Here is the input.
Amino acid sequence: MSPLPRKDRDLLALFAPIARMPFRSPTVRGVAALSLTQLIGWGATFWLPAVTGPAMAGALRMPLPMVMAGPTVMLVVMAIASWPLSAAFERRGARPIMVLGSLLGATGLLLMGVANGPASYLLAWIILGLAGAGMLTTPAQIAVTEIAGENARQALGVLILAGGLTSTIVWPLTGVLQAQWGWRTTTLAYAVLMLFVCMPLHWAALARQPREKAAAEAATEPTSIDRPRFILLAMSFAANGFVTWGFALTIIILFEAAGLDHASALTAGAFIGLAQWAGRLVDFLGGRRLSGFATGLAASALFPLSFIVLLLTSNLVGAMLFATLYGLASGITAVTRATLPLQIFPAGAYARASAQLAVPLNLSFAAAPPVFTAIMTSAGPRAALWLALVISLFAFSTFFGLLLLHRRRFRTSRQN
Here is the structure.
């Protein structure tokens, strides 16, 4: 039997840390469980009104913009709740908090399914915000690092790759369920999934922190977080997140403003999703050879380059080039947000640092859509595009400053 070509051997080597684990491995079980619960969690909450919003507005006698403000309320509450939860993640681990988050998620969806007006509808989103702070993205990433240990970066890459398929899978499913059952029953069905799928998986598949370890950690001082590096990291990721979440609802309008017809704009917009997933895959495959700083800096440079392309072109070729650069940058950044703290902060501080980073990130994500919509309405699409370029240049500058500071701290620590 002839040996595999070198490029195939290299590809297998990249997946080896996870691929060689038996199916019963806690890491494989945990990542598989979290991939499913994150798909259900985000699809049943933040992404739900994208499909059911018009029907909700009619049934609840609410303006559609108020209905669509529900996910923004959720993100704001997640941001507010993330900081106080940071210490709890460090002391207790992710498992009990994610179990409670699943229960709160089911409660919020139950309330939404029986809502009869604005008050109960917005209260449901507040509860879902508390649930999200306990079970979505940041808690899942903390749970992966608790399970995977030295293979955390590869495991996080798998989790984020799976998360990139959420809207692709859940939107069609939600559309089918709504057509068959209506939006209320669909929402209640997702509440049942949260209660009887997500909560048991969080209980069974996540790491149980030994009592002796928890007691030992409680008796020692918490590992410190280097604040200058934390601030630069938060500023860079929040700035790029502001752009990507702001463009999420306005990208088709921007393409049309650049001169594309509606069909071409939809084609270029759909291609962004493929490029984002490819970006997540590129970072995952290159993770063993490249540091998070290298991939993160490349992604930060691709963002402003993509906006320059769109500002200078007015045809489908330019839009597709923009979609490729922008999508790759978005996908790589999604992985870097999860993995770079592993390189910057001590392992014992990862949970606290990640939870605290969620505060500026979620506030940025929540503010972006209304701000970009307001700018496009008042000053036009090109003004929004220029703003995105300026913000992305700021994000690149802060990330580059973080790299320089990290290298200086690393050299100092080696000399001492």
